[in-house]
Design brief:
The structure is a homodimer of 151-residue chains.
Chain A: H1 2-16, E1 21-22, E2 26-27, E3 37-44, E4 47-55, H2 57-68, H3 75-95, E5 103-104, E6 108-111, E7 116-119, E8 126-132, E9 135-145
Antiparallel strand pairs in A: 1-8, 2-8, 3-4, 3-5, 3-6, 4-9, 8-9
Chain lengths: 151, 151
């Protein structure tokens, strides 16, 4: 998990000037409430899996304003910024996991109160909770090394 | 889009004994309500993108019972079955798009009323609505050929 923890911290500190305080890792095989807005990126290659970055709305909005250097962020701005942040985190972590020669899919952003995100049953994703200066976020990673390629 | 339409029809007809009636294709760049349960699979390779299969709950539950040969399906069964159906559809479509030598990420399933799913801004996803014998579903596909690989 370390490449993902380091990547999230580096992206928040360099792009958003916010340190991240890390909470306790947990295995998230059960149904879990997520934050207000989440972005999903698929990883495929020698290992395949998924990275989800989920943010409280206050975190997403403040991050968007800083990324865009704007006082105001509309919904499309927030969606694009959350996708881009997730892409940066997954891209950085991927570059430290070169042995799996993975490539990233495009980010997909999920919005909605009460949404929850579930992984494939063969994956035991790890959830890394963080606290930023605007509130909580989490990074969830589920990876399977040497997965049999899908049909 | 044809490989995805053909793949959805083939999977529903062979695995679930349900024909699919196709509705009108639409570009889904705007915010759109989705069905109750959705699975997301990332595609990466010479083209990258995302496939989302979104189902009414009645469709998801009936499909799960048939796939598992059971009278009853609990929530985890439904989640796994929706992920697996989406994997089958994306895998079949991928095999007809060999020129892009894409690989699939693992499916991620999103559950929740009122969730909505947004694509990256550079993608203009196409939504293909279908009607099965249990109700509506949709397949959304956003692909970019020869995308610059993420950092």
């Amino acid at each position: 998990m370390n490449p993902f923890i380091a990547a999230a911290r580096a992206v928040f500190s360099t792009m958003l000037q916010s340190d991240l305080e890390r909470g306790e890792l947990s295995l998230s095989d059960e149904f879990k409430p997520q934050h207000d807005i989440s972005a999903v990126i698929g990883l495929s290659g020698e290992a395949s899996g998924t990275v989800i970055v989920s943010l409280d709305r206050a975190v997403a909005e403040n991050a968007t304003k800083i990324l865009l250097c704007q006082d105001h962020a509309d919904e499309q701005d927030v969606i694009d910024a959350v996708g881009e942040l997730t892409n940066m985190i997954a891209g950085r972590a991927k570059s430290k996991l070169e042995e799996f020669s993975m490539s990233l899919s495009l980010p997909t952003v999920i919005v909605g109160r009460d949404h929850s995100i579930r992984f494939a049953k063969e994956v035991r994703p790890i959830c890394i909770p963080f606290t930023s200066k605007w509130g909580p976020l989490s990074v969830e990673v589920g990876l399977i090394a040497n997965a049999v390629p899908a049909s």
